[in-house]
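Just wondering, does anyone understand what follows?

——
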Amino acid sequence: MFKWLRTGGDGLAEVEETFAGMLADDRHVFDLAMSARVGGADPTTLADALNRTEERTDEAERRIRRLVLVHASVHGASDIPACLMYMSIAKDAERIADLAKNIFGIADTVGTPPGGALREDLARLWDTISPMITEAGSILAEDDRRVAQTFVEVARDLQEHARQQIDALLRSPDEVPQAAATVLTYRHLGRIVANLLNIVSAVIMPLDRLDYPGESSAADATDE
């Protein structure tokens, strides 16, 4: 992982393992939230599992911070770039669970949208984004720059789609069922994708450009 900034050794292996667990929990929280928001599941039957899993992501982020600090104190400056990278992407992973929990909160308040194009579109985004959470971890583990670049392009398209849906809902002259709730759902989905994009950009971006993946180029992905 991050072979372009690692100096060697397995000193950060426990950090990598903890981060992989965070993404697995992120996907579980996301699936629970979307099953309540779009799939028609009863939120009261999912709340305990969702809250426990989301709390694990909080603890995992704190654990990564501790591990990184210990590693940096032992190994000095040799792995500082990798340590800073892990600090950044662990925060992104923690936000994904938070945003998914926000979607669950919407479902708990207003339930599932009525059948129609908007609900079908949200279900399509659920089917698309959920595996991307797992894929982000695989891309990091394999350090595959070409696959990372493709992921970034798909994520940008999803972000743009969410923005267009929000604009259409805000400008619609017709009364749309659950309009505000659906705008918020698209907003949270777009931010989840943005955090995934930040995580995967660690494979193709220098440290100072992390969190600004919009500045990437095809050359970034192919410049081995």
Q: What stands out?
A: The helical segments are 13-37, 43-75, 80-110, 117-142, 145-171, 179-201, 218-222. The chain has seven helices and no strands.
